[in-house]
Amino acid sequence: MSALIVINPNSSQTVTDGIDAAVDPLRAFGVPIRCLTLAEGPPGIESQMQADLTIAPMLKLAAAQTDAAGYVIACFGDPGLHALRDQTSRPVVGIQEAAVMTALTLAQRFGVIAILPASIPRHLRAFGAMGVLDRLAGDRALGLGVTDLADPAKSRDAMIATGLRLRDEDGANVLIMGCAGMAQYRQSLVDATGLPVVEPTQAAVSMALGHIQLNLSHTQKRATHA
Amino acid sequence: MSALIVINPNSSQTVTDGIDAAVDPLRAFGVPIRCLTLAEGPPGIESQMQADLTIAPMLKLAAAQTDAAGYVIACFGDPGLHALRDQTSRPVVGIQEAAVMTALTLAQRFGVIAILPASIPRHLRAFGAMGVLDRLAGDRALGLGVTDLADPAKSRDAMIATGLRLRDEDGANVLIMGCAGMAQYRQSLVDATGLPVVEPTQAAVSMALGHIQLNLSHTQKRATHA
Amino acid sequence: MSALIVINPNSSQTVTDGIDAAVDPLRAFGVPIRCLTLAEGPPGIESQMQADLTIAPMLKLAAAQTDAAGYVIACFGDPGLHALRDQTSRPVVGIQEAAVMTALTLAQRFGVIAILPASIPRHLRAFGAMGVLDRLAGDRALGLGVTDLADPAKSRDAMIATGLRLRDEDGANVLIMGCAGMAQYRQSLVDATGLPVVEPTQAAVSMALGHIQLNLSHTQKRATHA
Amino acid sequence: MSALIVINPNSSQTVTDGIDAAVDPLRAFGVPIRCLTLAEGPPGIESQMQADLTIAPMLKLAAAQTDAAGYVIACFGDPGLHALRDQTSRPVVGIQEAAVMTALTLAQRFGVIAILPASIPRHLRAFGAMGVLDRLAGDRALGLGVTDLADPAKSRDAMIATGLRLRDEDGANVLIMGCAGMAQYRQSLVDATGLPVVEPTQAAVSMALGHIQLNLSHTQKRATHA
Amino acid sequence: MSALIVINPNSSQTVTDGIDAAVDPLRAFGVPIRCLTLAEGPPGIESQMQADLTIAPMLKLAAAQTDAAGYVIACFGDPGLHALRDQTSRPVVGIQEAAVMTALTLAQRFGVIAILPASIPRHLRAFGAMGVLDRLAGDRALGLGVTDLADPAKSRDAMIATGLRLRDEDGANVLIMGCAGMAQYRQSLVDATGLPVVEPTQAAVSMALGHIQLNLSHTQKRATHA
Amino acid sequence: MSALIVINPNSSQTVTDGIDAAVDPLRAFGVPIRCLTLAEGPPGIESQMQADLTIAPMLKLAAAQTDAAGYVIACFGDPGLHALRDQTSRPVVGIQEAAVMTALTLAQRFGVIAILPASIPRHLRAFGAMGVLDRLAGDRALGLGVTDLADPAKSRDAMIATGLRLRDEDGANVLIMGCAGMAQYRQSLVDATGLPVVEPTQAAVSMALGHIQLNLSHTQKRATHA
After folding, report:
1. Domain extent for B67
2. Residue D136 falls within a domain, yes or no?
3. F134 vs D: CB within 8 A
4. Whole-number Cα distances in Å, E210 to A2, F100, F207, F210
5. Is D224 contained in some domain?
6. Which of B67, C37, D13, E72 has its C-alpha lying 20 to 30 A from C53's C-alpha?
7. Using the beta-carbon criterion (under 8 Å), do E121 and C109 form an inter-chain contact?
């Protein structure tokens, strides 16, 4: 039986494990979900350069999954999303794109919690390409250093503080977690802000499973493998 | 076990049957899907007035489904979408909104096949409210009279002709069927145009099932019933 | 002689009386203006559900005014605006739409004073449908509870405080009162902020009178009654 | 009794006479309307340079009207609109701005009939500054030479042909006549296209009369003269 | 040898001298650059009226430069930009337009430092006409009175404070100095904010020199003089 | 003396030679311009996958140019633009971005001549990220097969035909050649359409030379090499 392949393009198995746990409720839909770590990726993706350099090995890893029913690229920034669509006719979903489209069905204006300030211009380019800037309330970074990010309590507190600013200063009605591997904080964020919170790997896997089931892809070509 | 409730707000059981068939592949996800006809609705919804007047009985019908895990409003125009969200804390998905958000994950510019010319301004208001007009390639009506619409071959041919104009004159890369109950023509449209085609009730049910599974709603309130 | 019909879709005669006083200067134009209260409406409209449920009785009330030269729907949110346009060929003006279009002739960016925070997403959907979000400086709620809203001094002070924030933090150059029945505070708001202030029922009645005089309607059909 | 001053910034008295006739129905509102010709203007305004050069004499002519209750600048292009607002605290309405805002209360997408192709980039700059491009269906020129424009039958026929293309090819739901002095063709255009048609001097005078009556201006300053 | 003509439309020779110094590094490109003061201009341009009234004498001054290879209009507001393009077939660049287009090649969102609060609506109209509002982070005025503006230290400090607010509160990634004649503060602003800073006369002269060299103009007409 | 480095990311020396000739007039500005071919690139870049895969070798090639004063990435699509900005503090200009920003200083609406239909969605994503879609008139492909593209007369004729459609059907006022290496057809296109035509490598080199001379970069960091 073919599977949905979720590729974490950074090399952190911890992040992949977090993704695997986050999407576990969707295994009830009956399609196997296999989460892979890109060994060639950096430990974390912090720049456009790092993101772009994951594309070549990611395409190879994707091509090697001969039982793929579809793919999710699990980095907020969707590196290689369109390249993989050039390579395969299977459904390919990026977590950034899926998170935004999901948020837009939940409330009027979305706020994004970025890990790093330097990510924000990348996000804005992507939201502009998606044509959804009129729905953006704000995009704010956690403002944590590397050490603090390794501390779950500090990360959770910073997420909540950032979510509250997005709600109260920017007018966000729904929050998007701007990173894979943070699903463990989703409920805390819901509880603290009273807003719906979209965890992007969950959103992407949910959409990808629907696309697979409905035979919805970016191309009508139905090639032998990809 | 609670069910996803799909409400067809017009009174045509034929349309409801078409919706039921269209979403059948998604029953594999394990959540019961129950498609209801709004007896108080008009035979077809052709104006904003008709759409608005379905809201009151639709809200009652929705409230009576005590086992609802979530709702889909199955009229392209999403009448009562936000009203039902005011009434219930369960996920509520409109087929127009879901079709657009799904199309935006498939290709850059979407074209819409409207049944009637008079629907187009309504669509444009909705796409403006969604903030997605930069992604719209075009919205064109079939140009069929009532008699012709009852003829499947003529409907299919008009859909294909309209889809080809959206592709060739307007630059659409993905098509949205701007009506519930037309799923039977989806594959013909894919075959003739080579473009991905979004059938809106499929898109909405797929998103709603994901929302239910992920506990994603427009509000964090988790009231006893709705 | 036919009259302009202004329908307050909530059931508060006090609000209707306030509207009647607000539009009184426009009676100098020579067209009778008749302000009606929708008995079936809620005391105040606070949700999309409440707004949508006024449409059916509003349409009946409108149809019963056999001497109507045109209509104004006097709820910020314009419930039933397009439905009434489907029912009648007479000019129909919504106070939200008219207030925005009027503000856009007065200054570059408009700020909106909302009564309740929950109204803001509704406003944003409407401004998106109108295609005017690039001109929006901000939309802020008064932040008053029900008791305080009944206190004129507190309401005025909250309006002024909100207007000053829209001017100073959001860059608004013109203010819109986001509610019918607040015209009594307009001059105080002008005096305190130094900005032009648009009271929406005044703006709508003014536009409707012009439309009537110029024979301008959404449709060229000139049916016997409506 | 003070009067609304309508300034035609070209030197054609014929155009001024056409404007005077067009706005005549609005004299029923009780405010005197005085239409002036700018002697220093060119016979017709065909370029941005010509438009800009009318501003200095127009400001002088405006200042000389000591009984002005407000002003309308009657050239589609609104030359000197903001300059006059810097000079006076009375309401100042431009016919282009008023025509657009009026059209937006009548239908979803507006089409503009331009006299000359070279006017279209100017219009688009103005619509961009107004922030209303999402509502623009199209802007098309008549395609007539000078001789043909002097022929009423040819002008009317070209207007109708252009209006039909805006409706049928561009999807316009309401038409704006992109020029002062063409009011005589309005009804023919309505009859031929079935669309509402906005004549810009009518729209502007209507809005200006409302602004005067409601004491609505771009500034709250109420200086002695202007 | 023909020269690039830079016209300062205010009558301050000090400002012209500042522009001359700012663009001096671009003389290395080999094209003579001649900076002129408009004697008929006001000492400083503070309103749209003042800006518009410079157009007539500016056009004359421009026409008198018989050796012009191209023109830069050196007032942030670009008065007469399109009028001069109507008069000449040589390249004409406005400093506002060039500053924005240059900033857009440096970072995602631009912030503008305005001299006066009243300039901001003018800027917003211009950015709307340019269609770049999605890239605008914010536009903030220095908040200095006339006396303080004459004090270099106070001007520099206010520029830095404003730049920091644009960066930290509005999310600007690049700054534009919204005035000619402030180039002396550019490096201080870069040092204090860590952001790229666009001085508009430099940006405009740079673009104009390229246009001249590449034979790029708004029109292909290559008339004898202009 | 340091040089501006222009990298053609495809492996065609013929294309590089065409770029070198196109930018030759700008050598008069005094800065050496060195055009390089990316040996690892494909013969032509036709998909997002091909574009993305050039980034890694392009970054290496760029880093090896130790005398770089700045860089131009000479593929319409700007692959690796932001990655190279992460790697170096020197000015980096993409030809797509520069062509658009240059076109926006020449006329109101730009039309793009694409080589292949499949490029258009990529262009639209880029224009959306740039926030300039309101200025886009249209983007049309040449519609030539590989054989025809090798024939200069057929290429020129197709360019002219496409340019005329962009002008006449889409309302373009300026044209952008959506490909590097086509500069030889620029004058023919100007002559046939009467519109200004932007050749993207010329536009990019012109902007890059200005950025270098003015010390304008995406970052204020002035590191030892890059």
Report:
1. 3-94+202-214
2. yes
3. yes
4. 57, 15, 7, 8
5. no
6. B67
7. yes
CB contact under 8 A, B171 and F128: no
Number of H helices, E strands in chain A: 10, 8
Tokens 């319409």 locate to F76
Smallest CA-to-CA distance from A105 within B112, C95, B131, E120 is with B131
In a shared domain, residues D106 and D141: yes
- 3-state per-residue secondary structure call for B150-200: CCHHHHHHHHHHHHHHHHHCCCCCEEEECCCCCHHHHHHHHHHHCCCEECH
The reply to whether C194 and C107 lie within a common domain is yes
Q: How many structural domains is chain B composed of?
A: 2
Residue A207 lies in a domain: yes
State how far the Cα of E118 lies from the Cα of E123, in Å rounded to an integer. Answer: 9
Q: Cα–Cα distance between E120 and C137 in angstroms, integer?
A: 12
Burial of A222 (0-12, 13-18, 19+ CB in 10 A): exposed
**Are E87 and E31 contained in the same domain?**
yes
Q: C30 touching B, CB under 8 A? A: no
Q: Is F145 exposed, middle or buried (0-12, 13-18, 19+ CB in 10 A)?
A: exposed
Q: What is the pLDDT of residue F57?
A: 98
Say if residue F89 is in the same domain as residue F182.
no
Q: Sorting pLDDT into bands at 50, 70 and 90, what band is B1?
A: confident
Is the Cβ pair A134, B131 closer than 8 Å? Answer: yes
Contact status, residue B218 vs residue B93, Cβ threshold 8 Å: no
Select from A93, A131, A196 the Cβ nearest to the Cβ of B105.
Answer: A93
Residue F112 is classified by DSSP as E
If asked whether residues A179 and A209 sit together in one domain, one would say no
Chain F residue with Cα closest to E194 = F220
- Which residue does chain F place closest to A47, by CA atoms? F86
Q: Is A106 on the interface with E (CB under 8 A)?
A: no
Q: Give the integer Cα–Cα distance in Å for E42 and A93.
A: 59
Interval A197-219: pLDDT, tens? 999 999 999 999 999 999 999 98
Q: How many residues does chain B have?
A: 226
User: Which residue type sits at B207?
Assistant: M
C109: distance to nearest CA of chain B, Å? 19
The ipTM of this complex is 0.96
What is the pLDDT, as a whole number, of residue E223? Answer: 40
Task: Find the angle CA(B108)-CA(B109)-CA(B113) to the nearest 5 degrees.
Answer: 145
Residue of F50, F83, F125 with shortest CB distance to A49: F83
At position F62, the amino acid (one-letter code) is A
- Whole-number pLDDT of residue E150: 81
Residues with Cβ < 8 Å from A14, sequence gap 6 or more? A181
Q: What is the pTM of this model?
A: 0.97
Dihedral-angle region of residue F8 (phi above 0 means left; psi in -120 to 50 means alpha; beta otherwise): beta
Please give the pLDDT value at position F172.
98
Is residue E67 domain-shared with residue E103, that is, in the same domain? no
Is there a domain that residue A10 lies in? yes
Q: Of A120, A122, A124, which to mutate for an interface test with E (greatest number of E Cβ within 10 Å)? A: A124
Across the interface, of E203, E207, E220, the residue whose CB is closest to F194 is E220
Q: Average model confidence (pLDDT) for chain C?
A: 95
Examine the domain organization and report whether C125 and C207 are in the same domain: no
pLDDT digits (tens, 9 = 90+) for D145-173: 767 778 999 999 999 999 999 999 999 99
Q: Which residue from A56, A122, A129 is facing F128, i.e. has the nearest CB? A: A129
CATH number of the domain that residue B49 is part of: 3.40.50.12500
The answer on pLDDT for C225 being more than 50 is no
Q: Which residue of C has its CA nearest to E136?
A: C134
Measured in whole angstroms, the distance separating CA C11 from the mean position of its chain's CA atoms is 16
Same domain for E129 and E34: no
Contact with chain B for residue A28, Cβ under 8 A: yes
Question: What residues of B are in contact with residue C128 (Cβ under 8 Å)?
Answer: 128-131
